[in-house]
Every structure is written in structure tokens, then in C-alpha cells.
Amino acid sequence: MIAFASKVEGEKGNNHAQLYLKNVQTGEERQVCFLPNGISNVSWSPDGKHIAFCSLEGEPQPQDPLVQHINQGRHTRLWTVRPDYDVAEPVTPNGLSVWHYAWSPDSQHFGLYYAMGPHETDWYRGQLGLVSAYGGAVHQISQLTRQAFALTWSPDGTRLAYVSGEWSDPDRGGGEIFVHSVKDNQVRNLTPGIDWSPTWLQWHPDGQRILCAGWDRMTGRVALLEESSGTLTTVSDNFLLGERGWPHLSATADLRKVVATHSEKYPYDVWLGDLPIDDQSAPKITWQRRSRLNPLAEETLAVATTEQIHYESVDGWSIEALVTWPDKKTSDINLLPLVVNVHGGPSGVWQDDWDSYRSQALAAAGFAVLRPNIRGSMGRGVAFADAVIGDMGGKDLQDVLAGVEYLVNRNLVDSQRIGIMGWSYGGFMTAWAVTQTPLFKAAVMGAGISDFHSFHAQTNIQDWDMRFLGQIGQPANPLSDAATYREHSPITYASRVQTPTLIVHGDKDACVPVNQAYAFYRALQEQKVPTELVTYPREGHGLTERKHMLDYMQRTLDWFKRYL
């Protein structure tokens, strides 16, 4: 039997995904139960007798009038159901939100990463807990100061392993691997100083090793971790894992076979890996491609060449970046225009993958595209990711400028035709960059922050600015640290801007509210800086409607063609 969540057109509750079962042998499908707000995060109990899932509680908040008050919101609750029974049973009490969970090996308990508040921002303050699989109170077992992810139980049920770090986005982070002993509440960091970013874990049946996977600079890595010694043995490297924000595997219980999505010079496909886990010499995963989901794109699109580079930035740090080149030769007489694309997060990362469409579209139009993994990025360990905390717009901007200088000094791009763009944190960096230097002759600010005070007032992740504008372990306060909020806000320095700036934003963005776009647009407009503001109806923090994505890309191309 396969359990899955699905929206079925024409059936009851089709606005929300519901739980279905499919008999693999007969092909028969049936809906198991109905939850008014739908379900997510489906998993079988190890003994196969129950299926767990999460579901949002309560009714949607009335919109007219829209009333807000402390502790208002809808919690995400953990439920179970028996496959042959249509009544779901709550596991966790209402009044706390479950972000991640893991069945214990005996199917009697859950390990949880949960938060007492109902909002997205409460994720930053979550804790580990235990709860009976049959429901009851949640017993907090941790005193975390950072977020946790990728929970996995030791085979004997005595230890819970997880990844922890400081991340800008829920469910998109890598860090160090910890083990929490349930018996005595002792916690060990198995990977202090690790120089890559694990984000997925599964314990080996021998109870002595953990298979982990994650970001390794611009690609992926899979390794076996010895719990006793902390020794890491790489079993797959230079193999890009996962899609978008979470490099991950699906593994059999004995870890001999793993499945992943993988991208090279084509969109993501499914790959099967064989892992000789008991090979005492040097076990390595042998990968085989198992799907070909986008043959049209693979066979017909002329893909521009992308090159990996590295260069020295401030403090002597080496920064890695991708450069996508248009299909023409450069010379001293005809140097290329350059567009710098800054990723989001800041806990994002550029990877050497298919890159959807943006870099390829720009390269096809004749632009070189630089995508630097500036400090704050995943893939280089916790210290590199933490380097941006309290310094947003500081040395991370220097990392961007050093990359531009690297290409200019080698006569590869035209120093007078350089643009910058980015989305989310990249949008903030775009706005920040044009207030700090006249280097950029065109900019496209996507869903970016311009004023941290008003951002804090309206965002759904107010813990983010407090943590990343503060110091490690010491969040900033927008009232007592008002100067910090002003100093890091692009709007403070908007009078300096000379760069023609296109500003694009989703009209329903809860993460970075659209007022951030209006504020920066108004500031530039009143100074007669060439600027346009484009807001997309119905869109949140990322564009989802096809016509909007096409419009955004065309406007971006037109803007850079016009000013570069």
C-alpha cells in the first residue's frame, strides 16, 4: 500500500489535499479519511498499523474586519489514522504547532520539532519534544537556541539525531548533526566545525552509523557518520541532490538503495543509487538514471555554458560563484555586459544545476550572469553561514563586489555595463547595493526589504530580522536597537541612488510585505531616478502564475537591455 496526499477534482474537500491509499498490486485507490483543512507530511508507522499526518486546526480568520491579537492563529496538529478505519485521531493537543515529526522504531512515540505559537515566525523558536503515538501531552526534551530539522531515531529508540543551525527559511537549512539521548537528556554535537551543510539523516540498522546528505559547496554530498568517533566517510560527492531547498534522499530501511532527484545539464530526474553499505573498504553509491521527465527541454534547448569560479574577498575568504556565458567570444573591444544575481535567504545557495530559466534567458539575450555564493550561504558549514548574522549588507556585499572585480580585471566583462538583480534577500541586497555604490547601471529588485522597521511591523517572520540583525544568540530589538534597524535599511540611504531600478513584488506577500516595494519606489521616484513598480495580484513571496513569471522575465530582460 502507498499512502499519499492528493487533491481530487469534483470530490468532497477538493480545495485541500486529503489522505488516500493505493493498492500496488490491484491499482485500487480510496480516500481514507476527511480533514476539513486537508493534510500534509504523510508517513507510515514502522509496524504499518497507522498513518501519521499533519493538519491545520480551526476555521479561517474572518477578513472583514480583520482583527489581530496576541496568540491569535491556527496551529498545525499531528494526527494518526488506521488504514482500514476512516476516523482520524489527534496525537498532539491543540495549542502547539508541529513542524517536523519522526516515528519511534517501535511505533509507540513521536519525536517532534514543535513551537508553542501558531505563526510561521514561531518556527524560529521551536523545541524538541516527545509524545505518545496514542496522544497526550508533549514532553519538551531540549533547550534549543536554534532550529532543528531531519529528525531520525536510533534503531533501539534511545537516541534522536537531528540537524541544527540558524536558518532564514523554514525547512531550508543545513548545519551540524546532534544526537540527543532520550534516557539521560545528554546532547552531543557529532560534527563540530563541519565544512559542508548536512540537511537529511537516516540511521543505519546497526545503530552505530548515520547516513547524511546535504549541500557541499555548489553540489551535493552523501556520507556515513560514525556516531562514536564523528568520522565522516563520503559515499557520494559531486552529485547534485534534491530540488530547490532541500537536498534529500529516500532510502530503504537497510540503506542499500537510495533514490534522489538529480540535475545536471537538464531538469531534475529520478535516480536510483546502490550503496554497498557493508563494504569495509570505501563504500560508494553507484547511481543510475531512472526517469526522463523533460525530453523536449533536454533535446531542443540550447543551454549556455556555466563555469565555476572562485576568488578572494575581504578577510581573505575564498568565495565560489557560477558564471553563465552567452554563446559568443569576448574581446577587449567587445566586452560583455554583466548581470549579478544574488540568491535569497541569506541561507540560500546557488548550485550548478539546470537553474530553471533566469540565467539561461539572460545569457541567451547576450548577458554574462554571475551568481556568487556569498557569506551566509549554505554548503560551507555553520561558520560560513553564520558570518552574515549582524552584518547583512556588509561583507556579503563585498563578496559580490569582489566577484565583479574578478571578472572586470580579467577583461571578461564591461565595467560600465554591470547590473544586479535578486529575489527576497537578493532583492534586499539589490536595493542595498544601489544605495552603496554607483557601480551598477541597472537593477531589478524582487520582493526585497527596503525598511527593516516597517518590515518588522508587517512581516509574518519578525523573528528573522531580530535574529539576523542581532548577534549570534543575541537577537536585535527594533525598539532598543532602532539605530541598527536604520543603519541596515536601504531606505536610509535612498538619496544616494542613481541606478535605474525596476521593482517587482507579489501583492499578497506575507513574508516581505508589498509596502517595502512601495517605499523604495516612492523614494526613487521623488528623486527622478528612472524606476518602475510592478506588483502581481494574488502572488505571495514567489511568483506561481505562468503569465506572471513570463511577464517578470520579459520585464527583466527589457530593463537590462534598455540600461546596459
Automatic annotation (TrEMBL):
One annotated GO biological process: proteolysis
Peptidase S9 prolyl oligopeptidase catalytic domain segment(s): 357-564
One protein family per Pfam: Peptidase_S9
SUPFAM superfamilies in the record: alpha/beta-Hydrolases, DPP6 N-terminal domain-like
Domain of life: Bacteria
Molecular function via GO: serine-type endopeptidase activity
Keywords: Hydrolase, Protease, Serine protease
Protein name stated in the entry: Peptidase
Highest classification ranks of the organism: Bacteria, Bacillati, Chloroflexota, Ktedonobacteria, Ktedonobacterales
